Amino acid sequence: EIVLTQSPGTLSLSPGERATLSCRASQSLSSSYLAWYQQKPGQAPRLLIYGASSRATGIPDRFSGSGSGTDFTLTISRLEPEDFAVYYCQQYGSSWTFGQGTKVEIK
Amino acid sequence: EVQLVESGGGLVQPGGSLKLSCAASGFTFSGSAMHWVRQASGKGLEWVGRIRSKANSYATEYAASVKGRFTISRDDSKNTAYLQMNSLKTEDTAVYYCARGWYADYWGQGTLLTVSS
Predict the structure, then answer these.
(1) CB distance from B58 to chain A under 8 Å?
(2) DSSP string, B1-22
(3) Residue B45: closest C-alpha in chain A
(4) Most C-beta atoms within 10 A of its C-beta, which of A3, A63, A99, B25?
(5) Do B108 and A95 touch (CB under 8 A)?
(6) Which of the four pLDDT bands, split at 50, 70 and 90, describes residue A31?
(7) Which residues contact A82 (CB under 8 A, 6 or more apart)?
(8) pLDDT digits (tens, 9 = 90+) for B7-23
């Protein structure tokens, strides 16, 4: 089973700041089968990024994904108030596994 | 508009059974893999399992934590996927989501299962 480890666990930032979230896989992900999701309290997760770097439909361009192999990053260039949430990475190359999540909170 | 609507959650005693449904609309259900993902209160996302399309022989795969107890099925004529849960344990308590596709581009709103005596 591929294990995904996200860091940091919590990120405390102010609106307008840049957020950098990390996701490390226990083994190399074939063809960058890595996705990122945003989840707000009481809501289902929402797809942000797939294929490590492709934005899903309707996702603002302040969200970007990068990386390959075992190391991946989600960057939010300038945090908007609605971006404070929990973010999960997921690999979908070998069944599915999720990281444990990174909470982006208001500083 | 793509919609996924889960139903069937509720309170079940340990050792009991329950069947969840996921009704789909707005896309070609028969061509899509469908997954179940759960989330215990205050915890992260845990993949439960998936069923592939008819073209992929309706192949199923399950997480180790539910293998042998849970069964995923689908009825393409009703655009519905199912999660049959047997031998339920207290640690199965969670919100259960269904999700579409290779990666989860659409999710339902979730249905709550509580396993408690």
Answers:
(1) no
(2) --EEEEE--EEE-TT--EEEEE
(3) A98
(4) A99
(5) no
(6) confident
(7) none
(8) 999 999 999 999 999 99
Tokens 């849960």, located at residue: B85
Which token pair is A17? 């700041």
Is the CB of residue A89 less than 8 Å from the CB of residue A6? yes
User: What does the buried/exposed string (b/e) look like for A89-107 if buried means 16 or more CB atoms within 10 Å of the residue's CB?
Assistant: bbbbbeebbbbbbbebeee
> Which of A3, A37, A90, A96 best tests the B interface by mutation, with the highest count of B CBs <10 A?
A96
B104 touches chain A (CB under 8 A): yes
Phi, psi of B52 (to 5 degrees): -90, 180
Q: What is the mean pLDDT of chain A?
A: 96
